[in-house]
Design goal:
With about 220 residues, this protein is mostly helical. It is about 80% helix and about 0% strand.
Length: about 220
């Protein structure tokens, strides 16, 4: 029923050149794509995101650019679920090419999300050094930001980097990354930051234990508690 309503909206106002209506059409298409994904109609969702991008990608209206960026990120995630990993990476690269140099917060967030998902996708393709390089790019771009949504992606990037370094049997570098997380976010009371921080501390403790640094591991668990 929701999809039908979005179709009705696009049918009524899809040809309008009024900016306020175009924004609502873009939102309707974005929401339609998300609903189709929930219905496990992933191919249809990808087609809707493509339709939205083709309609509004040339616009310089900030509100429309934001919707295009979100549609591209959602398309990449959907392609990943379809196990079309190379296509997903290409979409994330498209997000970076279009919006990577923007200083607009509403565009920086999808850029950060695209980078984190690109890193995870590269990891799934066993392109491990590229994966780590992407996480480093997240830190270089957004590590100094005080915007909560960007800090959340930085925390995810650090956590993923640490996990990957552990799997590459680079435990000292892994531990250093978790230490960086604690230094950055250890005092935060934001739930979206506390969860990856807790995971980082847990992983750090395990890694210290494997290095037979038991006292240090106990200290990390005490810190976590």
């Amino acid at each position: 029923d929701a999809v039908a309503v979005y179709d009705d909206m696009v049918g009524r106002f899809g040809a309008s050149d009024v900016a306020a209506l175009q924004e609502q059409v873009a939102r309707a298409l974005l929401n339609k794509g998300m609903m189709l994904s929930r219905l496990e109609r992933s191919e249809d969702a990808v087609a809707v995101y493509d339709d939205m991008v083709s309609r509004f990608s040339a616009s310089d209206v900030a509100a429309l650019q934001e919707q295009v960026a979100k549609a591209l990120v959602n398309k990449g995630i959907t392609l990943g679920r379809l196990e079309r990993s190379e296509d997903a990476v290409a979409v994330y690269d498209d997000v970076l090419a279009r919006f990577g140099s923007s200083d607009v917060a509403a565009l920086q967030e999808p850029v950060a999300i695209a980078l984190v998902f690109k890193g995870m996708t590269l990891g799934g393709l066993e392109r491990l050094n590229e994966e780590i390089a992407v996480y480093d790019d997240v830190l270089a771009r957004f590590g100094a930001s005080d915007v909560a949504a960007l800090q959340e992606q930085v925390a995810k990037a650090l956590l993923n980097k640490g996990v990957r370094l552990g799997r590459l049997e680079l435990p000292e570098k892994e531990i250093a990354v978790y230490g960086d997380m604690v230094a950055r976010f250890g005092a935060s009371d934001v739930a979206a930051l506390q969860e990856p921080l807790a995971k980082a501390l847990w992983n750090k403790g395990i890694t210290l234990g494997r290095l037979e640094r038991s006292e240090d591991a106990v200290a990390v668990y005490d810190d976590m508690v």
